[in-house]
């Protein structure tokens, strides 16, 4: 059984036009020790998927409207807050895109990492301090003693993201959700941080959900890939086959916009698919990618294509089958 | 060291500016101080002599120089009414006024912070609407009017609180009893402001990424809200509380007069009515110094709370 099995997840937000789905019927699974890459342009629902798993959708503005999130056999949807809190930071951890804003400016790095132990009942004290130091060493922070006493604004972006990772690893979680962990970093630092995550997942047997809009990163680090568009998964499969023989025009477009895999940033190049992701208030009938699709057919605007197998473990949601 | 430099470069010039304005204001008040001091039946010769004694026949800039000199050396003159040193009388009245202000600040913090936090955390709930309504009422009520209303209902009709005075000297309980209504009245004008501000800064901070991180770590809600959100929201709240100190001191004058409570406020008030200029001058100068001191302390506190500007 998979460690995490998300099935038919739907997450909606309140809008002026009523509730609208940012994630609409998403299903995927992550095995222990596996990296699942989730890729898609800005606004495709990657973060909302991650936050839904964490139970961090702000109830004032949104809710999980349907589906299930089975984690180690337990459904996280509808779980009591106290039970969720016991899982967060202990068995499921998350790191965020912008480490500067994700860290509290008023507390030292040591305090913010140590807090995870306090939250899960291990108290603060010399033992905790020792564990924090070990974590900082684990993520290869030079001068861990010094960093402990620093405030987030006093250290570099790369160090901040390492500190975030250290925080996420406090209890060696089963699942690590990394939401665009390197988007805010320089290219060289980006590679260091990703290599660190890769090393840790092998050493600690973590399951990793690596969210990115850079398909180059996915090619390098993911075992399996899920491509998201408009709140749905449009294609999913093992990294090798999906990247070599993409089936969905959106995936093809993403790949075509990267001249050489694994080099540099792709923010600008991603725009080479004409048009933009629809906002959640735009009601696109049928396939949501159809308005931007080069292979659009009449049927695409009427009926949403289901995810169907194209090869072993490789599914695509598209009426067009010309890629095969 | 940095603190000393900041004190010298910020607080001192402000104080100088304040006493200069005070000097000019007192000279702009219509009427002749000499006449006021000697009374309506003084002879022209007496008036002329007193003017000479007071230096009122000198050009304004000379008067200013003399004024500054005596101000700096602490020779603030005698009250015309009691003939005792003006500064001494102010310092005697000061503890009562400080007690009133401190009580008001304690009330503001004890009421407004929790109210603001709760209405932010439960935004758009009945609690939030209730708090907003009370805030609206408080902000639209003039202070003296609220004071009179409280007096009428709680003291006159219900007889729960004393009507005037500051309580027996040395009897803390009686003093606190006398403090309740005045400090509540003084606080009232600021409760609304600080509650609203706390609510809006909390709302802003609750949407920040680090609050999400705190939740993602498995922290419980009270810890998330107080340790992570409130701590950051306090940065702007502290500044505003500090900046309203001037208004608080001004409000203390009105409250002391309404409640016939001894203090610097009533003293200045009486001195104005009696045209006791040295006394007014001393009272207002001490208020100005207090005001500047609180602003300075606010700055220091902000620096302590905010690691990003800590030196
Ligand atoms: N709190 C919210 N209230 C309303 N709409 C939201 C909220 N959070 C996200 N959305 C909407 O949900 C959709 C998906 O957002 P999401 O943040 O998951 O995108 P993403 O794939 O993570 O993009 P990015 O690469 O920019 O992080 C977007 O259209 C966004 O506007
Ligand atoms: Mg995102």
Summarize this entry quickly:
The complex is a heterodimer of chains A (324) and B (311). Chain A has helices spanning 46-54, 81-87, 99-102, 109-119, 126-138, 144-148, 157-168, 187-204, 215-221, 239-244, 249-256, 267-270; strands at 4-15, 18-30, 35-39, 62-71, 74-75, 92-95, 175-179, 207-212, 224-229, 232-238, 308-311, 314-316. Chain A is an alpha/beta fold and 324 residues long.
Question: Which properties best describe this structure?
Answer:
heterodimer, A: 324 residues, alpha/beta, Rossmann fold, eight-stranded mixed β-sheet, four-stranded antiparallel β-sheet, B: 311 residues, mainly alpha, MetI-like fold, 2 domains, 77% helix, 0% strand, globular, binds adenosine-5'-triphosphate, binds magnesium ion
Please give the structural blueprint.
The complex is a heterodimer of chains A (324) and B (311).
Chain A: E1 4-15, E2 18-30, E3 35-39, H1 46-54, E4 62-71, E5 74-75, H2 81-87, E6 92-95, H3 99-102, H4 109-119, H5 126-138, H6 144-148, H7 157-168, E7 175-179, H8 187-204, E8 207-212, H9 215-221, E9 224-229, E10 232-238, H10 239-244, H11 249-256, H12 267-270, E11 308-311, E12 314-316
Parallel strand pairs in A: 3-8, 3-9, 6-7, 7-8
Antiparallel strand pairs in A: 1-2, 1-4, 4-5, 9-10, 10-12, 11-12
Helix pairs in contact in A: 4-5, 4-7, 5-7, 7-8
Chain B: H1 2-28, H2 33-38, H3 44-54, H4 60-72, H5 86-121, H6 126-139, H7 143-157, H8 172-206, H9 209-216, H10 221-243, H11 245-258, H12 264-273, H13 277-305
Helix pairs in contact in B: 1-13, 5-6, 5-8, 5-11, 5-13, 6-8, 7-8, 7-11, 8-10, 8-11, 9-10, 10-13, 11-12, 12-13
The complex binds adenosine-5'-triphosphate and magnesium ion (MG).
The site of adenosine-5'-triphosphate (ATP) has 15 residues of chain A, from α1.
DSSP summary, beta strand count of chain B: 0
For this structure, the CATH topology of the largest domain in chain B is MetI-like fold
Strand element count of chain A? 12
Output the CATH homologous superfamily of the domain at 4-91 and 171-232 in chain A: P-loop containing nucleotide triphosphate hydrolases
Oligomer: heterodimer
Q: Quote the beta fraction of chain B.
A: under 5%
Bound molecules: adenosine-5'-triphosphate, magnesium ion
* Largest interface, Cβ cutoff 8 Å: A-B, 28 and 23 residues
**What structural class results from the helix and strand content of chain A?**
alpha/beta
Order of SSEs of chain A: EEEHEEHEHHHHHEHEHEEHHHEE
The order of strands across the largest sheet of chain A is: 6-7-8-3-9-10-12-11
The whole-number mean of residue pLDDT values of chain A reads 90
Tally of individual domains of chain B: 2
Radius of gyration of chain A: 20 Å
Membrane topology (chain A): Peripheral membrane protein
Domain ABC transporter (chain A): 4-255
Subcellular location (chain A): Cell inner membrane
Keywords (chain A): ATP-binding, Cell membrane, Membrane, Nucleotide-binding, Transport
């Amino acid at each position: 059984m998979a460690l995490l099995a998300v099935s038919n997840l739907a997450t909606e937000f309140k809008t002026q036009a009523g509730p609208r789905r940012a994630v609409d019927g998403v299903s995927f699974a992550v095995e222990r020790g596996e990296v699942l890459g989730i890729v898609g342009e800005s606004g495709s629902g990657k973060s909302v998927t991650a936050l839904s798993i964490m139970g961090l959708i702000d109830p004032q503005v949104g809710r999980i409207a349907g589906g299930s999130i089975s984690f180690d056999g337990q459904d996280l949807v509808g779980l009591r807050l106290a039970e969720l809190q016991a899982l967060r930071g202990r068995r499921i951890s998350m790191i965020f895109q912008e480490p500067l804003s994700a860290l509290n400016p008023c507390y030292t790095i040591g305090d913010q990492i140590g807090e995870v132990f306090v939250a899960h009942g291990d108290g603060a004290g010399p033992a905790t301090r020792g564990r924090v130091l070990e974590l900082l060493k684990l993520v290869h922070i030079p001068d861990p003693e010094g960093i402990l006493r620093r405030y987030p604004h006093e250290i570099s972006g790369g160090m901040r993201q390492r500190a975030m990772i250290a925080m996420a690893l406090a209890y060696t979680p089963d699942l690590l959700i990394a939401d665009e962990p390197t988007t805010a970093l320089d290219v060289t630092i980006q590679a260091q941080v990703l290599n660190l995550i890769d090393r840790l997942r092998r050493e600690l047997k973590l399951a990793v959900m690596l969210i990115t809009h850079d398909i180059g990163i996915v090619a390098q680090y993911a075992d399996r890939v899920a491509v998201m568009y408009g709140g749905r998964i449009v294609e999913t499969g093992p990294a090798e086959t999906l990247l070599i023989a993409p089936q969905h025009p959106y995936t093809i477009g993403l790949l075509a916009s990267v001249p050489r895999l694994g080099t540099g940033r792709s923010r600008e190049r991603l725009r080479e698919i004409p048009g933009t992701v629809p906002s959640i208030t735009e009601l696109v009938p049928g396939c949501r990618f159809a308005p931007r699709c080069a292979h659009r057919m009449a049927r695409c605007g009427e009926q949403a294509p289901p995810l169907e197998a194209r090869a072993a473990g490789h599914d695509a949601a598209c009426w067009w089958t010309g890629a095969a | 060291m940095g603190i000393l430099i900041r004190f010298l470069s910020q607080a001192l010039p402000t104080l100088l500016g304040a006493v200069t304005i005070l000097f000019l204001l007192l000279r702009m008040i219509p009427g002749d101080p000499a006449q006021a001091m000697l009374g309506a039946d003084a002879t022209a010769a007496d008036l002329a002599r007193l003017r000479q004694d007071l230096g009122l026949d000198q050009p304004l800039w000379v008067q200013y120089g003399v004024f500054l000199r005596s101000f700096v050396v602490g020779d603030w003159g005698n009250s015309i009414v009691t003939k005792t040193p003006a500064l001494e009388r102010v310092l005697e009245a000061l503890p009562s006024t400080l007690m009133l202000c401190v009580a008001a600040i304690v009330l503001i913090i004890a009421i407004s912070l929790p109210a603001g936090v709760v209405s932010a955390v439960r935004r758009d709930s009945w609690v939030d609407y209730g708090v907003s309504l009370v805030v609206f009422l408080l902000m639209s009520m003039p202070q003296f009017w609220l004071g009179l209303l409280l007096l009428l209902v709680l003291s006159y009709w219900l007889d729960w609180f004393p009507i005037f005075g500051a309580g027996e000297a040395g009897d803390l309980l009686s003093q606190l009893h006398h403090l309740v209504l005045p400090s509540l009245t003084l606080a009232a004008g600021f409760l609304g402001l600080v509650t609203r501000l706390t609510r809006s800064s909390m709302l802003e901070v609750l949407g920040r990424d680090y609050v999400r991180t705190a939740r993602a770590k498995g922290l419980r809600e009270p810890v998330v809200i107080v340790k992570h959100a409130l701590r950051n929201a306090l940065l702007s709240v502290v500044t505003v509380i500090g900046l309203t100190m001037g208004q608080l001191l001004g409000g203390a004058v009105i409250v002391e007069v309404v409640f016939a409570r001894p203090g610097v406020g009533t003293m200045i008030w009486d001195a104005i009515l009696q045209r006791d200029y040295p006394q007014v001058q001393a009272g207002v100068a001490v208020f100005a110094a207090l005001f500047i001191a609180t602003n300075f302390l606010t700055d220091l506190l902000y620096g302590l709370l905010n690691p990003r500007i800590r030196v």
